[in-house]
Amino acid sequence: MNSKNLYFTIFSLILLGFISSCTENSNTCSPSYASNIEQLNEKLYESYANIATRGNNTTSDDIITPEYFGGSYVKANKLIVMVKSGSQKGIEDVKKRLGTDSNVIFESCTYSLQELKDLNAKLEVSLAKQTALRDEIGWVAVGIRPIQNRIVVYLNNVSNKNISKFKNEICNSDKIIFDQLEIEPIEIQKDTIAIDNDISTFSVTNIYLSSLYTCSTTTTAGTTLTATGSVGYRAKLNGHNGFMTASHVLPALGLTVKVNSKACGVVKGVTKGAQTEAAFVMTTNNFTPINTTNWTGTKINPTVVKYTSLINRTVVAEGGMTKKAIEGTVEDIEVAWHVQGESVSGKLDFIINKAISVKYTNQSLSLRQGDSGCPIYDKSSKNICGCLTGKAVDKNKQKVFIFTSAEIALNSMKATVY
């Protein structure tokens, strides 16, 4: 065999290997993007799952991690593993699980991830139950900021008075830092509005991700209420095709959803509160969701990013009202926040506790009302991270958006991507 034929044969084998790694399975596809580091991170969490888990270990966030483990994340193509007090025993344990790898960097931290999760869970209960005090001090959310190795308590005014009252009446711990966050209210329209999906990229039968949809109801007084949201990601529930979006836009079963003024589906699944908020829309036979976004034409992989792999990840939100891709970096996880406002099915008043907050990369951009439910996907791999659930501004007037995890939302409904 001459050298040219040999090179061709080797190339063909490599290509065949790549093709065989991507299957038609509804939940998995393994593209060869530079994500060996992310796979290391998942391997580490999966090794912990063999030791202890919460409940039925239905999502990656249910994994109980060791006392030495402070968290992990990918930065500059390195896996950063945080080890409590720089424990040499902990470092050696990680090396046994992952092998010796120059791409794994160890950093010392003060608290274990499990310590932070345990305290965060207690604070979530206080956020839900101590409503009078919550409203008095403007306590809007609580979550974990893994890179800082702290719990962050969000107040809409980080005054010394509010912080002191929180410490005196709720919790005074060195694990907690305080930040300011003003969450934008959820609004609905009191009349019909025009929806402008770009006809050049939108067909009558195909429903593109990030396209705008509407849902209208009529009150007993005869007022028409219209909610506007964005198509999230393609999913399948009980054998039916459709898409996932935000349940604060579509909060009840049986609601009719329209795209371009045409009825395209019916709400068949709703989750509000506990861990997430999500709605599944079963599309009618003449409408087909496709894994391409409406505005940028980005092809989205039917692969879900695990909750435990979201930290420090660059993600993209593409909303139907904004009509563009907006990037940001995941900053906080395990975020509990109070969802409240008006909807087409009455008042919203529930707390979710597994949201994720993202700091905008370009602060001159902004998501808008009507973008709720839009897809959040990984910038590098184009894998699915979740759906947009809220927007906020911090004390430095830096914009933040909040999304719910696709892994947790799909699990809550026993749905799959395809």
How would you explain this protein's 3D organization?
- Helices cover 21% and strands 40% of the residues.
- It has 418 residues and is an alpha+beta fold.
- Among the domains are: 27-109, GMP Synthetase, Chain A, domain 3 (2-Layer Sandwich), CATH 3.30.300.50; 113-183, GMP Synthetase, Chain A, domain 3 (2-Layer Sandwich), CATH 3.30.300; 206-291, Thrombin, subunit H, CATH 2.40.10.
- Strands 4, 5, 6, 16, 17, 18, 19, 20, 21 and 22 form a 10-stranded mixed β-sheet that branches. It has a 5-stranded antiparallel β-sheet with strand order 10-11-14-13-12, covered by helices on one side.
- A hairpin with a 2-residue loop joins strand 12 and strand 13 (262-273).
- The radius of gyration is 22 Å and the shape is globular.
- Residues 6-34 and 199-204 have low confidence and may be disordered.
